[in-house]
Every structure is written in structure tokens, then in C-alpha cells.
Write a structure and sequence with these properties.
Layout (H helix, E strand, L loop, with lengths): L6 E8 L5 E8 L7 E2 L19 E9 L4 E10 L2 E9 L5 E8 L3 E6 L8 E9 L2 E2 L1 E6 L6 E7 L11 E4 L4 E3 L2 E12 L2 E11 L7 E5 L9 H4 L7 E8 L5 E8 L3 E8 H10 L1 E3 L3
Antiparallel strand pairs: 1-2, 2-3, 4-5, 5-6, 6-7, 8-9, 9-10, 9-11, 11-12, 13-15, 14-15, 15-16, 16-17, 17-21, 18-19, 19-20
């Protein structure tokens, strides 16, 4: 949400070549009467950034008060696979690109809104020989990243979040800790199903999982979520919080074809998580 109360979505748009760019849509109430930029707000620049050869997608926006700028963490896609890229902006007109900060194959990334113990923190999802799990990394300058640590593993077997998980919206700061909405991908005979779950991480040690829900909380049910370019997908990348500090608007991709909105209560999500948790510490 911008300073004047306008909701800005940085939408992934796929052109007829099959390559994606980002386009801003603005609304005064975050629900309707969207004004969409006539030209791509942020497009791939493969001549300067060859890792963007096949497009850019899945942006997650975090406002960084220390820098008075918005951080856009997005996926840059090229021959080597998806990588995590970063750009900073003050107005969503001009972008300061940092290029790829996490080499392929890596995606589903977002920054925390402020430094933690003196360092910036980034959640991301590399894919390797051990599977597709959620990790955290730290940096002093937003360019060089290290201190890698796995924070949440995909379950195995018949779980709703077996085999592959990833961050959905950027972390949500609460008095109880960092509330994380993440997606899990279950494979069955008809393909993959993307659903959402919750986990809570320690405020000062965000690599420490305090609670993890055993059940999924949100899944594809409506026709526009079940049928599209990629069926049976709900995939949030952004949210805004109302002035009451509790009501949250969650913006998500539905079947990779449309953008939809769901509302929830942060306090109710925390209460649900406490009642459905798989304990990860005290």
C-alpha cells in the first residue's frame, strides 16, 4: 500500500510470445476501479541482465523504511532456470536493479521489512538434490548473501505440502512473531494442487520455526481457481493490512490466469495456527 492509501499490485503479465513482464495496477480501495499502466511497468532487460532472457515474474514487494524505498524481489528466468533478482524503487516508475542475488534454481523469495540483528534477511526456495524447501539468508548490503539456513522442510508421503513448498506473501510481522503464509504442492493422479498453509517464526531468530499448521487453510475451490492455464492453483504474492491492524487483504493468482482477492483476520490465523499446530519449539 502506498503512502496515500492507494493499493498497488505489480502484476505478472505474459505476452503472446510466452514471456512475462510486470505491470502496475492501482486502486483507491484495493477492490475495484483498477487503473492499469498502459505500458509494462517493469520489463525484462536481457541485454543488460541476460538472466532475464525469458522474462520476469512473481514479484513480492516489501517496503523498507530504512531506505524509504520499496524492494521488489522477483524471479528472473533464462536458460539456466529461475533465479532470485532484486530491484529497488521509490515510485514504481524508475527501478534500481541489483540483478540476480540467488543463482538458479531458486525462486519464491521476499525480504523482511527491516534488518534483524543488523542484517537484512531473505526467505527463498532453492531446488536441489534434497528437494524443494524454504531457506533464509542474510546480507549487510542486499548484494552479497550468506549464512544460509533451512527453515521449513517439505513433508513427505501423502501430506498436502509434500515434496515442494515455497513462500507465498512476504512475512507478516505480528506480536507473536513472523507469520508466514506458504504454498504446498501435492501431486496426485490428476496433476498438482497448490494450497496454502501457515507457520510462525521467532521475531529475533526468523530461522526458528515456532509453530506449523498440519492442515492447509486455503485451496482452489472456485471455477477460476480450478481451471486456467495451470489448473488447481492459488498462489499469493502480496497483501495489505487495513488500518485496524488485523484485517488482511491477500492478493493471489488463480490458475495462473486471473488475479483474485481473499480477506482474513491476522488474529484468527494466529489462533487457528495455535490450535492446529505441529510444535517446533517453545
Amino acid at each position: 500500500m502506498l503512502d496515500d492509501g492507494t493499493t498497488l499490485l505489480l502484476c505478472r503479465v505474459e505476452d503472446k510470445k510466452g514471456h512475462s513482464h510486470l505491470c502496475a495496477a492501482r486502486s483507491k480501495n484495493g477492490i475495484d476501479h483498477w487503473v492499469i499502466d498502459e505500458k509494462p511497468t517493469m520489463k525484462a532487460e536481457p541485454k543488460l541482465y541476460p538472466e532475464e532472457l525469458w522474462g520476469i515474474e512473481d514479484p513480492r514487494i516489501t517496503y523498507l523504511p530504512e531506505l524509504t524505498k520499496y524492494a521488489v524481489v522477483y524471479t528472473a528466468y533464462a536458460k539456466g532456470g529461475p533465479g532470485v533478482a532484486l530491484a529497488l524503487t521509490e515510485d514504481f516508475k524508475f527501478f534500481e536493479r541489483y540483478g540476480v542475488i540467488m543463482q538458479p534454481e531458486n525462486k519464491d523469495a521476499a525480504l523482511f521489512p527491516h534488518r534483524i540483528n543488523g542484517r537484512w534477511a531473505l526467505i527463498h526456495r532453492p531446488i536441489g538434490a534434497t528437494g524443494a524447501h524454504m531457506w533464509i539468508s542474510y546480507s549487510s548490503d542486499l548484494k552479497d548473501w550468506g549464512s544460509y539456513s533451512k527453515i521449513l522442510e517439505a513433508r513427505t508421503g501423502g501430506w498436502w505440502d509434500a515434496n515442494k513448498i515455497g513462500l507465498s506473501t512476504p512475512p507478516i510481522e505480528t506480536v507473536s512473531g513472523w507469520l508466514i503464509i506458504y504454498h504446498g504442492v501435492k501431486q496426485n493422479a490428476s496433476g498438482c494442487i497448490y494450497r496454502l498453509g501457515l507457520a510462525l517464526f521467532d521475531h529475533e531468530k526468523p530461522d526458528k520455526c515456532l509453530q506449523r499448521g498440519e492442515e492447509w487453510i486455503f485451496g482452489p475451490e472456485e471455477d477460476y481457481e480450478l481451471n486456467g492455464d495451470v489448473d488447481k492453483v492459488v498462489f499469493p504474492c502480496g497483501y495489505t493490512v487495513n488500518p485496524d491492524g488485523d484485517t488482511i487483504k491477500i492478493y493471489y493468482g488463480a490458475a495462473d490466469t486471473t488475479i483474485a482477492l481473499a480477506t482474513a483476520s491476522i488474529q484468527q490465523m494466529l489462533a487457528w495456527l495455535s490450535s492446529k499446530k505441529e510444535s517446533h519449539g517453545s
